[in-house]
Design a protein that fits this description.
By secondary structure, the chain is mainly α. The chain contains 33 helices and five strands. It is found in: Membrane.
């Protein structure tokens, strides 16, 4: 804003010259007031238009994925059993608790059935609210019961529409984050366009609706948007408090809805720790975020009846260790460059050591072993020794837990997203490294010079930079986690393409910088990119919306109908984890095992049940199944004769190796493996030999499934 001051060395005007001078001042002040008012009106208009665009895009995305789901399954036309079967594997298990709450005589009885559940794991009563993240199903079921919508909306539609509605929140949060970083809502528009056109790699909500990540990721996106706003400079105290509250609520809801929350927040805490060590983020705000993470998780722990896995998580130990280390090591941010580097190395070692000690101490007290399979998996995955552990190998052989396929990058490149992402990532990473080095070197200077050193990289941009780098590493190592990275990739790339600071840096390096050129490029390039995306992908999106398919799985439908019609309600079923989740949802029968794998007792039980696909005697298999009160066992040809995985990764191979037996087929075996004394159970039982029929009677079969009833010997 222009200001008026008296000229240096000028002669003070006489009385007869006062009038013209006053007139000039009045005109200047009027012009300033006009500019200020005009700028304020423009900001209000931009905020209004940007907000309308954000809400519109969120709603359109929600309708888009709902339409894809309907077109893919013809969900409105198929039978209820087919709708339930469409919720595959663990999705069906989670939805079954929503159905259970809806069908309960009262809310109190429904909650009692979850807290004292004896149908999810036979001969064992477990607390579902403690073991699984299903509070969202509880909340939705209660909401459905108390709202006057039962006559107009079926329970399943209330459920799936809620999930599709959360997609609107997800998209709006991505839009707002990009807008906050770049200063223009054009960036948010570009981020959402990339999110939609890269849908295969940014979300899978339309075909895995009840999956925990589809509940959690919208809240995680809201949390990132709130953290981005928190790291803006010159926030008023009231704004800062409200933002911290928003971060806490989003963190709490994210933690409540996904069992993998602790690992995501550990990466987030690591990002904050790195940036704080290099003075790129304000320490006070970072400390608040550590406290919010701990308090959010502890609140979830209390709601989950003091779930020991949360208390023993690395994120609790890591954040606690950071706060302890700060009290031990003071004056970390004073001294010359070498002195600072030495202190940082010692600080990192102290935090790491404290984290391991605190975590080991907590696990020792709580006798916690629920997450040991994850560390076995990580140890084997990153080459710290081969393992025969069945649980670790089960994860290692799943494509979802493998490395990110290279064709992902070709798909992301088709929309220009990956090219733009790398184009923005490289200069920002270099800038961050330079700023970090300068901050360490500037530690002895006055505050004004320190600010000059950090001005090249804003805290909100720095946070999102390290966030995308760390979650990118996670996605590269584990394909299932790519949805955390690719959605943020849309935000980061669109922000960089619309950022004044990024274009200033690039143009200055190319010696082409002018203020006008920067302003033109920051709007022109994104608009051209948007037009290219619309031109290339809009016809495909329209064709996709017109493509109609139908759910078709007659063998599974036949199986579920047979179970409901021909078995008692108290019958106990054994089989694969994935199929049994559907059995519970569609029939309400009791299970021996299920896909929620975060419990040591359940993992051991599942390994025992899976001996039906191993080389074991009929007497051994019968004894194992009856130890879990099994009445019926379901054998699947797709597992017994599996061809989806290569040799060494088929379920029967994993069982053979774990049992010390040679695997089937041509190929090498480890020297200490030996031939089994018995043939494979799932193959041999179909021959109806006396040694099998004395224990097992076939009661149902079709092209896919074989159901055997177990004899009840005295």
């Amino acid at each position: 804003m222009t200001t008026i001051r008296q000229r240096k060395g000028g002669k003070v005007p006489e009385a007869d010259e006062d009038q013209p001078s006053d007139e000039k001042n009045v005109k200047s002040e009027g012009k300033n007031l006009y500019d200020h008012t005009g700028g304020k009106l423009w900001n209000i208009l931009s905020l209004t238009v940007g907000g309308i665009v954000a809400i519109s895009l969120g709603l359109l995305t929600s309708v888009y994925v709902a339409t894809l789901h309907e077109n893919d399954l013809w969900f409105s036309n198929i039978k209820e059993v087919e709708r339930e079967i469409s919720f595959r594997t663990e999705c069906g298990l989670y939805y079954s608790y929503y159905k259970q709450m809806i069908q309960a005589a009262s809310i109190q009885q429904g909650l009692h059935g979850l807290v004292y559940d004896n149908k999810t794991e036979s001969v064992r009563t477990i607390n579902i609210l403690e073991r699984m993240n299903v509070y969202q199903e509880v909340f939705l079921s209660i909401l459905y019961r108390i709202l006057p919508i039962q006559q107009y909306l079926e329970p399943v539609y209330f459920y799936i529409y809620t999930l599709f509605g959360l997609q609107a929140i997800y998209v709006i949060a991505l839009y707002v984050t990009s807008w906050l970083l770049s200063g223009t809502w054009l960036s948010g528009l570009l981020a959402v366009c990339w999110y939609i056109t890269n849908r295969i790699d940014t979300t899978r909500v339309e075909f895995t609706i009840p999956l925990r990540e589809n509940w959690a990721l919208p809240f995680f996106a809201v949390q990132i948007a709130a953290i981005t706003y928190l790291f803006r400079s010159h926030l008023q105290p009231a704004q800062e408090r409200l933002t911290l509250l928003a971060v806490f609520v989003a963190t709490f809801l994210f933690s409540l809805t996904w069992q993998f929350n602790q690992f995501m927040m550990l990466i987030q805490a690591l990002a904050l720790f790195i940036l704080d060590c290099f003075d790129i983020l304000p320490t006070a705000k970072v400390t608040w975020l550590y406290i919010i993470q701990i308090s959010g998780l502890l609140l979830v722990c209390a709601l989950q009846f003091f779930n020991s896995m949360i208390l023993g998580s690395l994120i609790i130990s890591f954040n606690t260790s950071i706060l302890i280390a700060r009290t031990i090591q003071k004056n970390l941010k004073k001294g010359n460059l070498l002195n600072r580097l030495g202190k940082l190395i010692l600080h990192a070692l102290l935090v790491s050591s404290l984290t391991l000690l605190v975590n080991r101490f907590i696990k020792k007290i709580l006798n916690l072993e629920s997450d040991e399979h994850i560390f076995k998996f990580l140890k084997a995955k990153f080459g710290f020794g081969a393992t025969r552990d069945f649980d670790a190998n089960l994860y290692l052989c799943e494509e979802a837990f493998g490395l990110l396929p290279l064709n992902t990058f070709s798909r992301l490149s088709d929309t220009l997203l990956f090219y733009v992402y790398i184009f923005i990532l490289i200069p920002m990473t270099i800038t961050a490294a330079i700023v970090a080095l300068r901050n360490l070197s500037c530690s002895n200077q006055d505050q004004e010079k320190v600010e000059e050193c950090t001005i090249a990289l804003k805290p909100d941009a720095a946070y999102n930079l390290i966030h995308t780098v760390l979650f990118g590493c996670l996605a590269l190592s584990t394909m299932r986690m790519k949805y955390l990275w690719t959605s943020h990739m849309c935000v980061f790339a669109s922000f960089g393409l619309c950022s004044t600071e990024i274009w200033q840096l690039i143009l200055k390096c190319a010696r082409l910088y002018t203020s006008q050129r920067t302003q033109v490029i920051k709007y022109l390039i994104p608009i051209i990119t948007l037009l290219y995306i619309l031109y290339k992908f809009w016809p495909g999106i329209m064709d996709e919306l017109l493509e109609l398919r139908e759910f078709y799985d007659p063998d599974t439908v036949e199986l579920m109908n047979w179970i409901k019609s021909n078995t008692p309600n108290t019958a106990v079923f054994a089989g694969s984890m994935q199929l049994l989740a559907g059995v519970k949802l569609c029939t309400g029968r009791t299970l021996t095992n299920h896909p929620h794998y975060e419990d040591k007792h359940l993992r051991e039980r599942t390994k025992q049940i899976y001996q039906i696909y191993a080389k074991r005697s009929p007497e051994d298999v019968y004894r194992i199944l009856r130890s879990f009160s099994t009445d019926y066992v379901i054998l699947e040809d797709s597992i017994c004769y599996e061809r989806r995985h290569s040799r060494g990764c088929r379920l029967r191979d994993l069982l053979d190796v774990a049992n010390g037996h040679i695997m089937d087929g041509l190929g090498e075996n480890e020297p200490d493996l030996k031939p089994s004394l018995y043939p494979r159970f799932c193959e041999e039982i179909k021959k109806n030999l006396p040694s099998y029929t004395i224990h097992f009677t076939r009661v149902f079969q079709n092209k896919t499934f074989h159901v055997y009833k177990l004899a009840k010997h005295k």
